[in-house]
């Protein structure tokens, strides 16, 4: 079998060319899937956080929880469709992952999807080498065409107490407030946290919905929106977040509309920021109020897309609770590239105030990593949302990178520090 490569002769032939016959990618497109993690495929090098087990793999990295399985797709890019490909592990010591499809290694399945199972947390094997997943040409001993690393992580648990708030206006009789809904129906908290779990499971973090409550708040200026502190209004975001608190839990508060944003996430050591006196998360369910005009932007979405939107909003705010920062805070001077727009910590989930400004664009639509089209009345429509990536690689030029390691370090803190 012969291979012919044609490249452009640039700069006297001194320009290096990278040929990618095959590549690893996410197993599915669309919303979060607990068996199909978003990969960190930024660049070919593998810069890892401190104390992580090194690997010789170049390219693709993804997280895998001990005792659980994940699917990854091998995509043919610049290679004949009939070229025989084989998949194998180059084993670290001891075995950290198991290749279950093809079992033990062998010919690449026709659909290109391989399956792996996490066996041992690599952090427990400090000083060893990580396991490399290889795609080889022709046979298990043929030339290596692509490599990947699955970083295996012991599960950590974040306990959540969910509060759904009905806000009662001071001008109306008690009980005249409107309860938040999801397209007119009660919010399915179990499904919501199942999808959030799918985003955080590759980081080895289990988001556990431990408690749930129906709450009522009285004497608010509005029956649907808690206002930012300093607005001179009765009924603020702080009033909601400090009104009900369950110790040793990440308290998540749901309201109908938010004042100019989709959500707020405050960890314990940030208490006092924006006038918030209690750690936790506040998230809208139905839309956003423009305080300047009083106009409400409702989310007109099909139920599945709206649920995905609520999922990425909540996962983003949980990221703040676990010490993750906005992508725009990492890049100097605030540049947002394609990779950044795939990350869950991209700050613009919904809508761009200025679509010509790269810093203000929403998350990337669909590059195989999740998408939905949101229709926000009165602004830009439709607006893509998507991107669930938590980064494993840690590039020195990006402060706050290596998000998985940061989130896990925070999740390990004692309850008195974490919550």
Terminal Cα span:
60 Å
Rg calculated over all Cα atoms: 23 Å
CATH topology of the largest domain: the name is Collagenase (Catalytic Domain)
Question: What does the largest sheet look like?
Answer: 8 strands, mixed
Tell me the β content: 25-35%
Which term fits the overall shape?
elongated
Task: Just name the CATH architecture of the largest domain.
Answer: 3-Layer(aba) Sandwich
Number of strands: 17
The H/E string reads: EEEEEEEEEEHEHEEEEHEEHH
* Poorly predicted tracts of residues: 365-384
Number of helical segments?
Answer: 5
Q: Return the structural class.
A: alpha+beta
Average pLDDT confidence is: 81
CATH class category of the largest domain: Alpha Beta
Domain tally: 2
